[in-house]
Amino acid sequence: MLTYQMPYTIDATGNLSSINKPRNIVRLSSSDKANTKPAVTKLACEIRSPLTSIGLSLELLEPNITDPGQKVYIDIIKRSSVQINHLVGLLLRADQ
User: Fold this and answer.
1) What's the whole-number mean pLDDT along residues 65-94?
2) Residue 69 sits in which domain range?
3) If DSSP states are collapsed to H, E and C, what string results for 2-62?
4) Cα–Cα nearest to 83, from 54, 60, 63
5) How far apart are CA 90 and CA 93, in angstroms?
6) pLDDT tens profile 58-69
7) 15 by DSSP, 3-state: which?
8) Number of structural domains, the chain?
9) Phi/psi at 14 (nearest 5 deg)?
């Protein structure tokens, strides 16, 4: 059995809480395939939620960045976010 624990929770405003109280968010059992789909869906949601926050923050920051060196880092973050989103999509399609 594989159990994934997050050491914190994030509220609707993006604030961290419960730092010292880990909670199980994904539990996979090789003997019970029925648990795979909900676990993968939950994991995808846990990845995409902060990824959406990163994308929205980039949209707000990007117009204010004038330094070409900093724009390089913005582009790296954008490309990495797109790649992570694509990988999550592949994970969800593979689980169907």
Assistant:
1) 89
2) 2-94
3) EEEEECCEECCCCCEECCCCCEEEEEECCCCHHHHHHHHHHHHHHHHHHHHHHHHHHHHHH
4) 54
5) 5
6) 999 999 999 999
7) coil
8) 1
9) 90, 10
